[in-house]
Amino acid sequence: MSSIKKSKPLFVVCPECHLEHKLQAKYGDDIVFISALGGLYQFESFDEYEEVSQLISNQNINRIYIVNSHHCSFFQNVIVGKKLKATYAEDTLNNLYFENIEALIPLNRISEKIRLLSSLFLKSQGQKFLDSPLLGDRIESGELECIGLFIDHEYTFNEVPIYGTTTI
């Protein structure tokens, strides 16, 4: 008798946001986390692609959630122009902010700017996963789903596809 392993999701989360408990409350305890500052997973070598691909296979992962939160200090710092951490995540978000400054400047509320920056970020991260060796083909074939998850200031979970024209 063969046992069928239940598929489970993988969440890429910023450790500074402390969202693991909230994610477990919503999605259950049988989930996997990868910590990445600002939710920005940086593949630095082919070995890292292999490790993530192996993790996905070994844990029977069927969905990758790239998680952003309104409460993330990396997003807030970029929006208000404060540069404290000097990390790859903050530099990447800063660049994304200035590449899209014409769309961000007219927005009055910080929460609106964070939501738009998050949407842009989720799409760019999704594209990185799609372009990655070992993962891109699995995403394109539908074997693996890649979803953006924005958690707003009221801790409402907003799941969105991160490919195509959908925005949050």
TrEMBL record:
This is Carbonic anhydrase. It comes from Reichenbachiella agariperforans. The lineage of its organism: Bacteria, Pseudomonadati, Bacteroidota, Cytophagia, Cytophagales.
